[in-house]
Design a protein that fits this description.
Elements (H helix, E strand, L loop, with lengths): L1 H21 L7 H24 L1 H24 L7 H24 L6 H10 L12 H23 L4 H24 L43 H11 L5 H6 L11 H5 L29 E5 L2 E5 L7 E3 L7 E5 L2 E11 L1 E5 L2 E10 L2 E5 L2 E7 L5 E5 L2 E6 L8 E5 L2 E9 L2 E6 L4 E5 L4 E5 L5
Helix pairs in contact: 1-2, 2-3, 2-7, 3-4, 4-5, 5-6, 6-7
Length: about 450
């Protein structure tokens, strides 16, 4: 029955695409029609799976669809007009930039969402819509944003692949959009957005289907979010430069690897403090308050099923004594502190912490350490998986019951696993370097350092 339903669904999608392709709108370029096919196909599929998951994911998806609709209007305008001047381009790009910023803001306001990884995948990659201002090769730019999404979709798959296949289908539908967009750009806009060389001037009144309003004064750049996540700098530059017109190109093409937060963890540690984990913004350089930062309120509370432990400084006796199997713990920007979790909990996430000590009894899911430095973990009972990502300095003390734990690491250094030996522990470093060779049929990878 399931196979029959899949077949019917594929046939319905094929019919929809054929019907849409058969609609001939006068004076509309083929690339606009092709974009409509993508809206009816990949984007509609993503919307369907987002509605199935509901909650924040569904609401975020509506914003995502609105951003794509705005880009469709931009493409319709481009097919009828000559390429604009730089100051005109900044005005034309602003509606799209606003939609993208709205998506980013929604994620920042919902850090406590149980589907935060879903929201992050969308918000970290939505900057791909800025391809319309990228030359000469916008396709690779979209791929880079797709890679940013993959960081978070992998976490969604890790969490849900064995318990709820709906999330797996959601990931497939979402990543499929960027795959199709890359193919679309390769076919119609290989070296940049195709404007109509014989079309109307963007500064002249238009009587076509997409008239341009008189340009308002150029807006200032939107606030740059200091969120410490993969691709933040590339994304923030894009939002600021979208409002500068075609000048976006130089900025995007010449960002060195050592200037990107996702490739240089040291930059993340230099980011300025934020007001709260739910809403972040930078003060205006001319504001008299810009040199001062409001103190961040420490948090240790149960919000729904999530324990929030945030902005704790120099607290050595933090305790969660009422943990339950349905609860998760999210520890964010806690420094020089110690947290003890009693009882059995579903999962624990440590994000952007420094000199944090964590002691827990039992975790049935996963313990994740992300974007952190000098973290010590002590397992008193059992834990099936510990994941370490973009972290410098991590010591994990395992118990006799947790020796079967899987340690998954990526882009991290100075990791050590301490195994109980009687009343003491023996330390084993986690490999950071690997050697890969081709054996004639497949790649073979092994640790390239002594870990014994």
């Amino acid at each position: 029955m399931s196979e029959l339903e899949d077949l019917v669904e594929r046939l319905e999608k094929s019919v929809e695409r054929l019907e849409l392709a058969s609609l001939k709108v006068p004076d509309v370029a083929p690339y606009v029609e092709a974009f409509d096919v993508m809206l009816m196909g990949a984007v509609a599929d993503y919307m369907k799976h987002s509605k199935i998951l509901g909650e924040d994911v569904e609401q975020h998806a509506k914003m995502f669809k609105a951003a794509f609709d705005t880009q469709r209007n931009f493409l319709l305008m481009a097919c009828k007009h000559q390429q604009p001047l730089e100051n005109e381009m900044s005005v034309l790009l602003k509606p799209m930039s606003d939609k993208m910023q709205e998506i980013q803001d929604f994620r920042e306001k919902n850090r406590g969402s149980r589907m935060f990884n879903h929201l992050s995948a969308v918000s970290e990659s939505i900057a791909a819509l800025g391809w319309v201002a990228v030359t000469p090769k916008p396709g690779p730019f979209v791929k880079e944003m797709n890679d940013a999404a993959t960081f978070y979709t992998n976490r969604v798959l890790k969490e849900f692949k064995d318990i709820d296949k709906r999330h797996v289908e959601w990931v497939k539908s979402f990543l499929g959009i960027w795959t199709e967009l890359q193919a679309y750009i390769k076919e119609y806009h290989t070296t940049g957005l195709s404007w109509n060389k014989a079309g109307l001037s963007t500064s002249a009144p238009s009587s076509g289907a997409c008239p341009l309003a008189p340009p308002p004064p150029p807006p200032g750049p939107p606030p740059i979010l200091p969120s410490e996540t993969p691709k933040d700098e590339a994304r923030s530059q894009l939002f600021a430069q979208l409002n500068q017109g075609e000048g976006i190109t130089k900025g995007l093409r010449h960002v060195a690897d050592d200037q990107k937060t996702h490739k240089n963890p040291n930059l993340r540690s230099q980011s300025g403090p934020v007001n709260s984990p739910s809403k972040t913004c930078l003060a205006s350089p001319t504001s008299p308050m810009s040199p001062l930062q409001q103190p961040r309120t420490p948090v240790l509370e149960l919000e729904g099923k999530k324990w929030r432990v945030e902005y704790q400084e120099n607290e050595k006796s933090l305790v969660i004594s009422e943990a339950e199997l349905k609860h998760v713990a999210y520890v964010y920007k806690c420094n020089n502190s110690v947290l003890k979790i009693q009882g059995k909990i579903n999962s624990i996430t440590i994000d952007s912490c420094k000199k944090l000590g964590l002691v827990f009894e039992n975790v049935v899911g996963i313990v994740e350490i992300i974007n952190s430095r000098n973290v010590e973990i002590q397992v008193m009972g059992k834990v099936p998986t510990i994941s370490i990502n973009k972290t410098e300095g991590c010591h994990i003390y395992l118990s006799e019951e947790s020796l079967g734990c899987e340690i998954i690491s990526a882009k991290s250094s100075e990791m050590n696993i301490l195994i109980p030996q009687g009343e003491d522990y023996k330390e084993y470093p986690v490999p950071e370097q690997f050697k890969t060779t081709w054996d004639g049929t497949k790649l073979c990878t092994e640790a390239a350092e002594n870990v014994g």
